[in-house]
């Protein structure tokens, strides 16, 4: 299995985040990717590739032009306004406020194009986020060219980012961009299975009214956990997409025994839908020692997860999402890939 990763992805290097109502050290840090990369090489999962630059067109198929312009021009606007260091949004166009017309002040723009204060933007965020998306696109290209599986070592992650807002450490929705690119290349049906601990609200929102990209997510109950405002069991898609989104919110403390019941239900949907490509939004934050999460996967459970996904028998693109127990992140991630290859 080929892995795709660019060192440019390491240049987004946030120092702090607002989390649990406090300013805290950032957890979505470059060493996450370095740990995974070194474990990929140590356990000989396959060759490491650097991504091809796909340009702006595949990003525009998922994100709005004004959102991409905002991300791309952010640093020059921010420093041009006399600001220094990484930036946090702090005011949002919630109920009864107007998202349009788009503000001109940088603080208004930050709020217009985000949904939380936990996701700092810095000088290199755009470069790193586009490199991360290009890793997903390059890995998708390997599937188009006949590979049975590929791993996009994406970081920054993507599944919380929607068409026109960032949040949850995500700026560009790597899995959605890869899914849409595959559709545009002629892949008829794509399914995205999101196994990150957190609900993939951005991916769900992007495909909510579509039947050509199924979205399935197993995650911590949003009544108890971030992102709080999406990911309930009654969200099943709308219009043409009715019945093509399914969510399994699970309680804090969920272990493999309980998790695998939801996974079997998700696998039944996948068998019925029979996608031409399966994209796995691969969060490793279901791990029992994850510092911000409350599920109880042990390392062997990641092997089991990979083996179960292999049994679906579909061309599979793994796109990395969350996971913050940095010392164990590489081995847990590679366990999924090894479980898949051996399964
Ligand atoms: C944590 C608040 C922010 C959580 C962001 C979740 C990022 C993630 N107290 N998404 O999958 O891992
Ligand atoms: Zn997560």
UniProtKB/TrEMBL annotation:
Residues 31-337 form the Histone deacetylase domain. It holds the Pfam family Hist_deacetyl. The keyword Zinc applies. SUPFAM superfamilies: Arginase/deacetylase. Its cofactor is Zn(2+). Signal peptide: none annotated. InterPro entries: HDACs (IPR000286), His_deacetylse_dom (IPR023801), His_deacetylse_dom_sf (IPR037138), Ureohydrolase_dom_sf (IPR023696). GO terms for molecular function: histone deacetylase activity; hydrolase activity; metal ion binding. Keywords: Hydrolase, Metal-binding, Zinc. GO terms for biological process: epigenetic regulation of gene expression. Belongs to the histone deacetylase family. This is Acetylpolyamine aminohydrolase. It comes from Pannonibacter phragmitetus. The lineage of its organism: Bacteria, Pseudomonadati, Pseudomonadota, Alphaproteobacteria, Hyphomicrobiales.
């Amino acid at each position: 299995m080929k892995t795709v990763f660019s060192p440019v992805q390491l240049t987004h290097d946030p120092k702090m985040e607002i989390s649990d109502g406090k300013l805290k050290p950032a957890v979505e840090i470059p060493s996450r990717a370095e740990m995974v990369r070194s474990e990929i090489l140590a356990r000989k999962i396959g060759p490491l590739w650097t991504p091809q630059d796909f340009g702006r067109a595949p990003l525009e198929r998922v994100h709005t032009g004004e959102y991409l312009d905002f991300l791309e021009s952010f640093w020059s606007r921010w420093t041009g306004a006399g600001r220094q260091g990484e930036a946090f949004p702090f005011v949002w166009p919630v109920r009864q406020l107007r998202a349009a017309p788009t503000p001109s002040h940088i603080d208004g723009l930050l709020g217009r194009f985000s949904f939380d204060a936990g996701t700092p933007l810095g000088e290199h965020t755009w470069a790193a986020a586009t490199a991360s998306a290009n890793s997903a696109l390059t890995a998708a290209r390997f599937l188009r060219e006949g590979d049975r599986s590929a791993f996009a070592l994406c970081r920054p992650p993507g599944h919380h980012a929607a068409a026109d807002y960032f949040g949850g450490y995500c700026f560009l929705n790597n899995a959605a961009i890869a899914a849409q690119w595959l559709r545009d290349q002629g892949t008829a049906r794509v399914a995205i299975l999101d196994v990150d601990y957190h609900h993939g609200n951005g991916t769900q929102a992007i495909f909510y009214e579509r039947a050509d990209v199924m979205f399935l997510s197993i995650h911590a109950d949003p009544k108890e956990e971030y992102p709080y405002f999406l990911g309930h069991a009654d969200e099943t898609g709308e219009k043409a997409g009715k019945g093509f989104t399914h969510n399994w919110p699970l309680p804090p403390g969920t272990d493999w025994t309980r998790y695998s019941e939801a996974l079997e239900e998700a696998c039944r949907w996948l068998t019925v839908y029979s996608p031409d490509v399966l994209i796995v939004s691969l969060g490793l934050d279901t791990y029992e020692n994850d510092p911000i999460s409350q599920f109880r996967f042990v390392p062997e459970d990641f092997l089991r997860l990979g083996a179960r996904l292999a049994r679906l028998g579909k061309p599979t693109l793994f796109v990395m999402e969350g996971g913050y127990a940095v010392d164990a992140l590489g081995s847990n991630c590679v366990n999924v890939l090894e479980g898949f290859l051996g399964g």
